[in-house]
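Q: Here's a chain of 165 amino acids. Please give me its 3D structure as tokens.
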Amino acid sequence: MIRSRAKSAIGDLSASASHTLSTTWTVPLPWFVLFDPGMRRVKLGKGRDDPEREVSWRVSIADARHRAREVGDLLEATFGDSGPGRVLLETRRWLDSFHPGSAVELDYGGLVQLFADSILQSDTTAEEVHDILDALRTGNVDELAELFADLRDFWGDLAARERAN
């Protein structure tokens, strides 16, 4: 479901690219590969309803394209042209429609209102996605399974909320 939403958001682009891609209730995990996990910005504000509340990452388009190509090759070699590799390929096409001096940002948007401060502060999704890539590179199947399970649990709670609505 997440993959189809991301594909749909990216697939609807015309010759003039949409400047915003969005999905509901989750963030496609392949999008995290574009960013250095250490560049995360967390702004909790004065509580869940504060419009200034934010979790985001920002990177230059050039860096995002480089990471997308590098990881895209790894995912294609591992999974073929489906699953996370497909989402990343479509994301690469989207990135290519922007000037090389541009920047790209990943943010949790309204999802930040659904998380307690402690959850947002301790969220390690970006790090875990990069750890998954390291596990793929080294063939560490046990670590890979554990990391996927952790992410499934974290993001699965939000997906369950969507189904309940």
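Q: Can you summarize the key feature?
A: The radius of gyration is 16 Å.
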